[in-house]
C-alpha cells in the first residue's frame, strides 16, 4: 500500500497486537484496529496551506495524491451563543458534518476505507448500513471506479436508497432492522467471490477517517482543544477517532489537551452510553432497540469496547436521552444554529442532560457534532412539529 512516511501499520485497541494494513479486525482477538504512527513534531506553521483532511497529511495513513476524495471535510465550526447561555458555559460550537459531499460524517470514513480497499485490489466494496454509510460507500466507490453494494434495513430512508442507486451502487434491502441487514451482509460475504472488500462499521480506516474531525476542530480553535465534545453515537468508531485524533494532535505538539468526549445515544439504543455509565468494559447488546433516530439504532456496536476505552481515557462518558428530547433538541438546534436533524438533535439533548448533571464548568468550550444534514431527516422534524399542532 502507498502510505505516508509516518504510518507504520495497524495496532489492536484491545490486545496491542501489531498487524499490517490489510486486516479489518485484529487477527489475534478480533478487536478494533487503529493506525500506528511515528508521530512527527509539528507546528501550525508547518502544516500545508490546504483545506480539509489534506492539511493533516502527516497525521494520516495515505498521501493526498493516493486518497479517494470528493472534497470531504473543511466543515464549519458554527458558534451557537444561545445554547451556550442555556447550558451555562463559555461557548458552544456545532461541527456541522452535514456539509460533506453526501451530507454526513460517513464521507470522511468511507474516503479512507475505500482508499484502503482499492489499494488492496478490491473490485467491489461492501457494507451493512442504516443508510448514510451505504450512500457514502457508493459515492466513493464510484469515484474510485469500483463497484459497491450496501445492505440496508427496510426502514432505511428512501433518500439513502435512492442515492445509492444514483451513484451506481448495488443494494440489498433486507426486511427488518439493522441487525437483519448485518446478517444478510455476513451471509453474502462468506460466499463472495474474490475481489470483495468489506468496509463495514468498525473498519480501521473508518476510524482513521473520523480523526480529521478532531484535527479540524482543534485547528479552527487555534489549536486550543475544546473542553468537551458531545457526539451522537451509533457504532462508536467516531468516538475512537475523535479521542485518537485529539491525542495525535497533542503528541505532535499542535494541541495541549484531549477534551472530554461524551457519547450521546437514544435511551432505547444506548449500548455504549449505558456501559459507560455502569463502568462496564464492553457494551451489552440491546435486545429490542426502537428509536426514531435510525442512524443510531445500533443494537451491537462494532467498535463498542474501543469506544468505551476512548471515553474513559478522555475523562468523558456516555449520556442516554429519550426520543422526545432528541426531537426537541433538533428543532431547537435549527432555530439556534445550523440545520440539525434528529441525529444531531441527540447531541443537543445530550448536552442539555449533561449540563443538568453538572458535567460542564462555566468556562468550558463545548463542541457538538452534527453528523448528518438536517434536510436528510426533514420528515422526522416535520412530523414532530405537526404533532405539536405546528
Description:
The chain starts with 6 loop residues before the first strand and ends with a helix. It is globular, with a radius of gyration of 19 Å. It is α/β, with parallel strands linked by helices. It has helices at residues 81-87, 106-119, 132-144, 158-166, 178-190, 204-220, 237-252, 271-278, 304-314, 323-336, 342-356, 378-387; strands at 7-12, 18-19, 33-37, 77-79, 91-96, 124-128, 147-153, 170-174, 196-198, 228-232, 260-266, 317-321, 365-370. Helix 2 (106-119) packs across helix 6 (204-220), helix 3 packs parallel to helix 4 and helix 7 crosses helix 9 (304-314). It is 38% helix and 17% strand. The mean pLDDT is 96. The strands form three sheets. Strands 4-5-13-10-11-12 form a six-stranded mixed sheet, sandwiched between helices. A four-stranded parallel sheet has the order 8-7-6-9, sandwiched between helices. Strands 2-1-3 form a three-stranded antiparallel sheet, with helices on one face.
Number of helices: 12
List SSEs in N-to-C order.
Answer: EEEEHEHEHEHEHEHEHEHHEHHEH
Proportion of residues in extended strands: 15-25%
Please give the share of residues in helix: 25-40%
Rounded radius of gyration (Å): 19 Å
Structural class: alpha/beta
Largest sheet: 6 strands, mixed
Shape: globular
State the end-to-end distance: 55 Å
